[in-house]
Inverse folding.
């Protein structure tokens, strides 16, 4: 049984301009100790998917369908108090913006110690010691002194390390990392990715990595799900995606990356824009931008099918 | 040129933590005021309500006609100004502090709830605030004082009841923006209860305007109390309060300057000290500002 399974998740936002179907039938599973990348462009529903798993979709967003299972528990069936106990303890989250994700009026040691106290109890002193340990664990230099620092005294990279320490302090089974390196310098990005990989391997923790950066995916993930306009269009092991992408959207994405073999040529892009999520109906959502489009693409909504071992794609047109 | 430029490059010195003038001044004035209020019975040379009509309207001792036994002069009923100031401070400071604390507690609590939970709670609380702002407060005060009878407690309750709305509005406005910040979302994602989010993540970040508001309100309350006393709705004569002394001395300001000036000075010094202290407190509590 997978650690987390999401089946047919649908999350909608009722706005005055119409119902936005931000996540529309997303299914995937994460095994224990697995890193799954959820890749897509802005507004495709990847963050809403992660917030749906935490049941923290901001109003007017509502989860209208599907199932989310963590081990034996159905998260959508839990009452508010039971769900609150899942957050932090079993599923933790790291956000994109290390500048604003820490409370500015408490020192980082204080914040981590508070998280330890809330989940494990014990004495204040023990919690503080545990906080210092956690800071050391995420490779903050001289953690005993740094624990007394306030967030504004730390660099972006150190802040993100503190965030990770804060998230991991209760020992969660699943870490949802929502663009954890987007706001950082490239050199710091590499360090944070290294850290995440090491912590993941050491703790055997599952990670749902949300990103739009295929480079980050290649570094860290075991499997990738490509999401477009609220639906997963392709899901496969990392090597399989990079060596033989199947979905025209995935192919387009990979072609957008600079590559030594195309040196001197202009970068390509995918023509058009994602559809208005208030007005999607029947048919493949990528059809208007797809180079392989056929009549049936506009008529029938494609479903994920296993075209190669472990490689699922929602496109009946593409040839393997 | 280059030699001079090199010579004038300052050596990086870690600035020493200096004692703040604002803190020292504010604190010492408040200590003196508070101390003299607490120890008024020991310090005052005269009974503050004792009238000696033959010695009415005597100026402070350093002026012509001044008397040594009345260092700050006497009023139109021959009462000792110094003693009245000392005893008046008890009422003015005590009433001001209690009223600010009470109105702050009510206002901050309701403002936190309204801003954080939004929706119906917000609409309900803010409509009450609007109602309080719409009623002319003197009318409200007259009604309450008429119902409960004028007393120190009534004055404090009335003052808190009419001023909490200002705390509520400023706190709510701040909370509206704080609750959207990522660290609050992060704390929620770590499974914190709503009450804990409020007390640990929202309130400490809304503290700055609350402190500033409280110092301004303390100043306002001292003056508010005098206004109520002046209208006969507050503390009743002959009990001395700074506000009432100020109002009373108004009639003699052309001939006996000390009657209105001295209590005015006491109010001004206290308000200034409180404001400076609040200013300093705000800067010190904010870890982002260098000390």
């Amino acid at each position: 049984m997978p650690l987390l399974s999401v089946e047919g998740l649908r999350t909608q936002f009722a706005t005055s301009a119409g119902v936005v179907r931000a996540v529309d039938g997303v299914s995937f599973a994460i095994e224990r100790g697995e890193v799954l990348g959820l890749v897509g462009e802005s507004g495709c529903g990847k963050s809403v998917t992660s917030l749906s798993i935490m049941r923290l979709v901001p109003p007017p967003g509502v989860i209208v369908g599907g199932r989310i299972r963590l081990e034996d528990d159905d998260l959508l069936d839990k009452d508010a108090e039971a769900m609150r106990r899942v957050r932090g303890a079993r599923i933790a989250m790291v956000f994109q913006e290390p500048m604003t994700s820490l409370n500015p009026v408490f020192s980082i040691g204080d914040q981590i110690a508070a998280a330890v106290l809330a989940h494990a109890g014990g004495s204040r002193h023990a919690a503080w010691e545990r906080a210092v340990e956690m800071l050391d664990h995420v490779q903050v230099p001289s953690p005993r002194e740094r624990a007394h620092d306030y967030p504004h005294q730390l660099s972006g990279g150190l802040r993100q390390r503190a965030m990770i320490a804060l998230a991991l302090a209760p020992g969660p089974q699943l870490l949802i990392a929502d663009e954890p390196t987007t706001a950082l310098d490239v050199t710091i990005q590499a360090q944070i990715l290294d850290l995440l990989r090491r912590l993941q391997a050491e703790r055997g923790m599952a990670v749902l990595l949300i990103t739009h950066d295929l480079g980050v995916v290649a570094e860290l993930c075991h499997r990738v799900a490509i999401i477009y306009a609220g639906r997963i269009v392709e899901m496969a092991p990392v090597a399989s995606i990079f060596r033989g992408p199947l979905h025209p959207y995935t192919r387009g994405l990979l072609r957008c990356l600079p590559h030594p073999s195309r040196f001197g040529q202009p970068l390509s892009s995918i023509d058009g824009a994602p559809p208005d999520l208030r007005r999607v109906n029947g048919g493949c959502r990528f059809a208007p931008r797809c180079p392989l489009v056929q009549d049936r693409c506009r008529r029938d909504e494609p479903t994920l099918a296993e075209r190669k071992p472990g490689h699922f794609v929602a496109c009946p047109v593409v040839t393997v | 040129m280059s030699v001079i430029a090199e010579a004038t490059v300052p050596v990086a010195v870690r600035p020493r933590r200096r004692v703040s003038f604002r803190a020292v001044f504010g604190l010492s004035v408040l200590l003196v005021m508070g101390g003299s209020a607490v120890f008024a019975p020991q310090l005052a040379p005269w009974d503050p309500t004792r009238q000696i009509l033959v010695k009415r309207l005597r100026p402070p001792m350093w002026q012509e006609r001044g008397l040594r036994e009345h260092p700050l002069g006497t009023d139109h009923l021959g009462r000792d100004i110094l003693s009245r100031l000392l005893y008046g401070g008890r009422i003015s400071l005590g009433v001001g502090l209690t009223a600010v604390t009470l109105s702050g507690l009510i206002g901050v609590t309701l403002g936190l709830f309204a801003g954080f939970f939004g929706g119906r709670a917000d609409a309900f609380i803010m409509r009450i605030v609007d109602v309080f702002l719409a009623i002319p407060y003197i009318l409200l005060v007259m009604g309450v004082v008429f119902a409960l009878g004028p007393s120190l407690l009534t004055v404090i309750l009335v003052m808190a009841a009419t001023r909490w709305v200002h705390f509520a509005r400023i706190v709510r406005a701040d909370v509206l923006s704080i609750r959207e910040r990522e660290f609050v979302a992060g704390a929620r994602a770590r499974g914190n209860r709503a009450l804990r989010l409020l007390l640990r993540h929202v309130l400490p970040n809304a503290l700055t305007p609350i402190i500033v508001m409280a110092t301004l309100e303390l100043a306002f309350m001292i003056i508010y109390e005098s206004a109520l006393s002046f209208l006969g709705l507050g503390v009743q004569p002959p009990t001395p309060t700074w506000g009432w002394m100020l109002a009373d001395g108004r009639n003699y300001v052309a001939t006996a300057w000390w009657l209105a000036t001295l209590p005015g000075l006491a109010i001004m010094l206290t308000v200034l000290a409180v404001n400076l202290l609040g200013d300093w407190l705000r800067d010190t509590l904010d870890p982002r500002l260098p000390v």
